[in-house]
Specification:
This protein is α+β, with helices and mostly antiparallel strands and 343 residues long. It contains eight helices and 15 strands.
Length: 343
């Protein structure tokens, strides 16, 4: 018995609609990804839009589900796939704060507030696992690294809060697997973040980076790179943050300063060789602050370093960078009310 043409049309339309729903939505899709490290809610908050979600987990003995890629792909249409990559890594405690490339543009990141050391942009983020996890690092690993979780987003622009929530969810999963489960306070969601105070602004000479008393050191007198023309820095409120000073001239002439009072990061930095002697330090320093310490770091862009070397000498260049670090460390110490021992 032949069906009426109207019924056939309705049936075909239903089939086409079902195919479209399956191909370009996540209907009837997975509830969790990366061996349970992420739920569909967190993934959808970062990889929004049409398409189906799927994940690819490395086939190894790692029980934590990393490295892992979650992608959203349109089966019908030409939109590029969007990807969320997650990874559990062993790195020096301050690896992200000293990075010149992958984790560059430090002052554009938003940093975690409270008992967590980490940062997020719209495309990537990192989070240091708590100090309780130090004992889970294999004895065979050299260099005293610490556990970090990292995320990267490709072909999508995530909200910073959403990416921070993904990091915390991964951290919760990993710490349980490692046997160093975090406290409810540490992993609480929604996460608090502190972003840049403003877009690049003209700096106040005596209070660079929004830090009272931070000014160019005497060592830069007579050098064309003595006075920055723009600055961008993390607003107050986070234990970890950054500042970038831009200088006039061609190219990216910039100095980057990072700091942290997070106990885990500070302890990890001390394990990896960061010293406490301000006269011997070159680019990193631990500043005494009562019973605790504050981490301070400075590095220059290639363009800044090239001009500085051209105008001075290798010895003078090292002296200028050392002077910048001491000036920054002194101002950070004062900002944390460390007292004479930290000045």
């Amino acid at each position: 018995m032949l069906l009426p043409l109207g019924s056939v049309a309705v049936a075909l339309a239903s089939i086409v609609m079902a195919v479209l729903v399956w191909a370009n939505t996540d209907a009837f899709g997975k509830d969790s990804f990366c061996r349970g490290a992420l739920g569909s809610k967190e993934v959808n908050s970062v990889l929004s839009g049409p398409g189906r979600l799927s994940d690819t987990v490395a086939e190894d003995e790692d029980p934590y589900g990393f490295p892992c890629e979650v992608e959203r792909t349109q089966r019908i249409g030409n939109a590029p796939r969007t990807v969320l990559s997650t990874e559990l890594v062993l790195q020096p405690a301050d690896f992200a704060l000293t990075s010149r490339n992958v984790w560059g543009n430090h002052a554009s990141y938003s940093y975690f507030v409270g008992e967590r050391a980490g940062a997020v942009s719209h495309e990537r983020g990192w989070l240091l696992l708590p100090q309780k996890c130090l004992g889970t690092v294999p004895d065979s690993v050299r260099g005293d690294p610490l556990w970090h979780v990292q995320v990267d987003v490709e072909n999508a622009r995530s909200g910073k809060s959403e990416l921070a929530a993904v990091l915390l969810r991964i951290a919760e999963h990993v710490t349980k697997q490692l046997g160093c489960d975090t406290t409810e306070r540490w992993r609480s969601v929604p996460s608090e973040l502190t972003g840049p105070a403003d877009e690049e602004v003209r700096p106040t000479f005596e209070d660079l980076c929004g830090t009272r008393g931070f000014k160019p050191p005497d060592a830069v007198e007579g050098v064309r790179l003595a006075t920055p023309t723009k600055e961008r820095y993390t607003a107050s409120g986070s234990t970890t943050g950054a500042c970038e000073l831009s200088f006039p001239g061609k190219g990216d002439r910039r100095l980057t300063f990072t700091r942290s009072a997070d106990p885990t990061l500070v302890h990890g930095a001390s394990l990896s060789g960061v010293g406490r002697d301000a006269f011997k330090a070159t680019d990193r320093l631990l500043v005494p602050c009562g019973k605790q310490e504050v981490y301070a770091h400075v590095h220059s862009s290639d363009a800044y370093g090239a001009v500085l070397e051209e105008q001075t000498s290798p010895q003078k260049e090292a002296a200028v960078m050392h002077a910048w670090l001491r000036s920054y460390a002194k101002a950070v110490s004062s900002a944390h009310r460390c007292g004479p021992s930290g000045s």
